[in-house]
Amino acid sequence: MEAAYALRRQVFVEEQGVPMDIEVDALDATAVHAIAIQDGIVVATGRLLKDTPVQGLIGRMAVARTLRRQGIGGSILALLEDEARSRGITHITLHAQSYVKEFYAGRGYQEEGEHFMEAGIQHILMRKALS
What we know:
The chain is of the alpha+beta class and about 130 residues long. The chain contains four helices and six strands, in the order H-H-E-E-E-H-E-H-E-E. It has helices at about 1-15, 20-25, 70-85, 100-105, and strands spanning about 30-40, 40-50, 55-65, 90-95, 110-120, 120-130. The longest helix has 15 residues, at about 70-85.
């Protein structure tokens, strides 16, 4: 987990300017975390939270800068979706940073509502029904 937190700090705090005090939260303790490891180093991560018995929330998706756009993020997302299905979750929501909403749209997520600011970054709520 420490390596996943280090990657999240690198991506969210150092690259994007998210305040450290909101990047790590109490929800990490109950989340399902996924990581990708390359050459012994965590290069991608994401987490799944169960909001209700059938509703999940995916977040904290991060991929090392030098490895983006190579399919690793998609693999983490697919793994988290599979885990959600195994837990009886039928719908996933996420807060997509606006500049990567096409990444999620290409994987079946649909935009809902208006763009909003979260941690100083523009986001859009996206939802997907899991089959």
